[in-house]
Design goal:
heterodimer; A: 190 residues; mainly alpha; 3 helices; 92% helix; B: 246 residues; two-stranded antiparallel sheet
Amino acid sequence: MPLYAALLAAAPAKAEKTNNFLIPNGTFIFEWIVFVLVLVFIARKILPRITAMIEKRQETIKQQFDDAKKAKDDAEKARKEYVDALAETRKEISRLREEANDEKQQIIEEARSEARRQAEELLEQNRTRLETERQQILLSLRSEIGELAFALSEKIVRDSLRDEERQRKLVDDFIAGVGTTVKVEADARS
Amino acid sequence: MIGASGALLAADIKVGDHPTTHFLGLTFNVDTMYTTAIAAALTLGFLAFVAAKATSAVPNKVQVVTEVVITQTRAYIEDAVGHDVPAWLVPLGVCLFFFILFCNWLGWFPSGHSPERLAPPTSDVNTVYAMTFTVVLLYTYLGVKRKGARYVGDWFTAKPAIRRPILVLEQIVNPLSLSLRLFGNIFAGGIMLAVIALLPFYLFPLYGFADFGWRLFDSGLIAPIQAFIYSFLTILYFGFAVAEEH
């Protein structure tokens, strides 16, 4: 109670001095001017600098993000190109291999047909040569036969004086025999 | 015992007592004026220092703290008034926060009692009224600029009707509570120091501990919290001023 009483006693004394601490006085004007000056100075001179730094930093960070993304994209692109090139190369290699195989096949084929051709040619040459030889033999045979015939006829003419009838038969038989022999030989050759 | 301390309280703690001077028929509180000048110099010096050292590369801790205040202020403002923020609004919020903070922090320095020679300027209503006057002026300006006559008209057409007297009353209550909350908290901090100084002689060993502990609590917690609350509520009132009734 005495505390309350003392405060009550103090209150009129304050009121007497008209010194209520909740009522502003002339200091208000000074305070307002100072505050406005501080506000204007901060708004005009100080904050723009700091804000500019914040924005610049954000810009830098954004730039770095963009750069990193671009680098990543580039790397991805390069990788893709590399993979594509690799696949292309593989394809090219298999194509070349196929071509080589084809070529090999073709060369073998050519060599084979060439050999066959040469063999046939050789065969043909042999055949022609043999034919020629046969003709020659035939010709020489004919001339020999002529000579033989001449010699025989000479003999026959000489013997005809002895037995005309028998001689005639002999000549006929002989000529018939020669013709058969020649024909048989020719058939055997061909 | 109670009677004795009651008498001591009445005798030794002079509430809101300031050395004064008179000029043009007005009373000026001399201590508030020079402490305000000191606080203003500290605020400007600190921010100018940060601005001079500011870098867009890796910032130092002081710059980080300042930037957090700035970006948070901007975020709160954008929440309150939308993305069309007037250029002076962020500086106002930042200025209020740092100026009040440095004002409050003057209470850290022991400077004698009744009256203290370095009492925080915010423990004088003139300082808080001056700031609140600026704030009211600016949010009224923004409200009238955005809404025209509807700035006042909305108070009388709000639905439900019960809100109308409340809205009118708020025009007085908001600035007054804004001012007196800050003033009361900081002023009470000074009173608390004066009360601690009244510890009886046989508790004298406690004095240093109690005095230091209170100053630590006052400057470490109450000073930044009150600075934050004042600037945050200011931003909210800007939001109220431009809010559209639906």
